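ok new one. same drill as before - structure tokens go in, u give me an amino acid for every spot. 54 of them this time. try not to just spam alanines like last time pls lmao
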């Protein structure tokens, strides 16, 4: 029941796998920075709806 070399190879994460993921994360981060005012305003409105004292 030792580690098989074939099974160990399935967990390899190389640059060709990691670069598209970082590109997507960078695009999401860029969009958040561009529209930060709208994102934070919407967040404040949602929090305000649930935290109003009656």
């Amino acid at each position: 029941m030792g580690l098989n070399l074939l099974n160990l190879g399935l967990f390899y994460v190389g640059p060709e796998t990691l670069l598209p993921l970082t590109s997507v994360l960078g695009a999401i981060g860029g969009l958040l920075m561009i529209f930060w005012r709208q994102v934070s305003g919407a967040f404040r409105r949602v929090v305000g709806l649930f935290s109003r004292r009656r």
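The mean pLDDT is 84. and btw DSSP finds three helices and no strands in the chain.
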